Amino acid sequence: MIARFRKCALQVNPYCYNKQFRQQDHGLSEAQYNQKLLDICREEKIEVIGIANHGSVEGLEGIRKALKESGILLLPGFEIMSTEKAHFVCLYPDPTSLQVLERYLGDLKLRDPEGGERPSSLGAAEIIRTVGKEQGGFIYAAHCTTGNGVLDRKLAHVWVDPDLRAAQILGSIADLQSTPYYNIVRNRESAYKRERPMALINAADIAVPEDLRGKSSTCLIKMTKLGFDSFKQAFFDPECRIRLSSDIPLEPASGIESIKVTGGYLDGLKLDLSENLNAVIGGRGTGKSTLIECVRFALEIDPIGNEAAKQHSEIIEENLGKVRARVEIAIRSAKLGGKRFTISRRYGDAATVMDEHGTLSNFSPKDLMPGIEIYGQNEIFEISRDQEGLHALIERFIRPDSSIEGELKATRERLIENRKAIAEAREKLSDIENDVIRLPKLREEADLLKTRVGADVLDRIPLIEREKLMRDRVEQELDDSLNALVAARDQFPDSSFLSPGAIKEMPHAAILGKMKELLDENLEALQEAFAKAEAQVKAAQKSFGVEKAKLNAAIEAEIAQIEKACEGLPSFEGKKGKAVGERYKSILQDIERIKPKESGYETRKKQIEELKKQRSLLLVELDRLASLASAARERSLKTLNKKLTGRIRLKLGAEGDRIGLRNFLRDLHLENIGEKRLNWILEASAISPRSLSQTIRGGAKTLEEKGWGIPPSVIASLALSMIRCLCRSKNCSFPTHLFWSSISAASPPKLSVPWKSSQPASSVPPS
What we know:
24 helices, 48% helix, disordered C terminus
């Protein structure tokens, strides 16, 4: 039998209460009232109700009769007032007869059946002792923070009574923060300090059945089996077994509901799990670890540690592999709104998922339970010795500021885009750089030859080259026009999705039909315009072909004249006149070809400089956000340390985890540099990705002077290899995001945990 939380309404009043104490008529007969109570209990899934009329048990039998055979646990009782005028609700096991309950009222010195609201002649301490120890009942302090409540009446001696284990509050504990009761219910007020914290419940005077729907009318109490003994037992462990209505999550939680194994060592095992804490207890070799690994196997979750992965494979092979056993797990998925699925996996196969209707699902186990984590005992020990694994374990408890993390992510993305833009601009610059660098020399040589040659006819060469460029530009523009038209045609509207067959079952098919007509009319107009424009461009291309032929003929005639003129040129520096003329012509042609690139070269240089300025500003912003994020993590760590008091104390060290930085350099496969030769990165102080990249740019001497303990044999190789790498690939980028920090423990006990950014090193920008 699985213990689970049961919804309980512990202050329900009978039919007569509303008229007797509130002078109101709810318009229902007693039978109707009781039936309505039952109906709403079923609708609201209430499994326990406590009857608590003021100083009376009138109306109890009618409710008892209505709830018979319903499966709802009835706790008969009453509400009573002590001599201090503090109210208490007293509940008893069912069946406790009316005669016995009336005798209990008499024992509590409340003998006047007409004076239900009159106080007993007993004090609160005596009432608590009598109900709990002599009568075998259960008692709680009613509405303790409001009128005639224990705290409202400032009865500290009653609050600290160890036999009083529960008190009713309205709403959540957080609702009391602005009141003097907050520290009391949190057991922080010295005058009200209890050895065992008070169990807090939600309950409300149910005057009419609809009151049961109120959020504070019920609370959750964890029981294995519905019964008075289980009910009372829960209050000995309220932290685990009592929940206020405000503790109920708004969204359903994920959970494993059952595990079934067919074949292998655990053949025939069928376990139903609690939706809360489950503990597997057994001696060595009874299958505890096998059970955990079977769950991991079915959910397709890989262990974190290397040794854990090896052990997992061995356990699965030994216990499932020999007979190709099968593991089946029933789960509830919070991601999919609390829907239930069955995940099954046979050894050697992938997991299959079935929905609650038995239909094969396309979801994977990780889709259904994306946040689930599974650790074996030995794996936890292994993780504690491995910095990366320990970081992964601790990271989920550190709550970063989501807004700052979002800004950090956006800044890193802008740095990546900036890096790409710089690389692209540099590539385009390099494409024209060699030509532009030649331009001054070509001009100087042309001036020299012109002085020696003195042929005016050669001065027409630059003009002819420009004509060629203009001719080619016109041809390209016409081609681009046609291509643009074709691309635009691909975006013309398509009304096929509104075909008569597609819309005939739609509730507003007529309107959709009109919309189809609009699209068709629009398409017809666009097609007509396209045909006209296409014809125009093709006509222009045809006419251009005629004019191009004329221009080519004229250019060829002009070139023939130039070549003829070159034959009559005087010799120069041992070269015949024709060769001198050809050289001069070639230089002028090169100059005209390169001149348009000259302005682009300067533009690219300015663009790169501007991108570098933007990068500097982005890096400053990254530093600012990193400081804010580090401070937020520090605050989160303080909260975590408070919870770990007496166990482990963690300390956040800025930029302490450099494993990602080392691995980034390792994965570049630099010459003569392996992982071991990069371990100085993990030990050096005052080192960051940016400082390392800047130092490498300074060369071997700068690396040596930095004092990071780099082996001499690595320095020259690192500097040379990094330069080669950066020159070889525009995509080789050095990481500049912050490898957040390290968490190292203050004594005692000792624990060392690295802290790093979740951004992979290979995707981060260079400085």
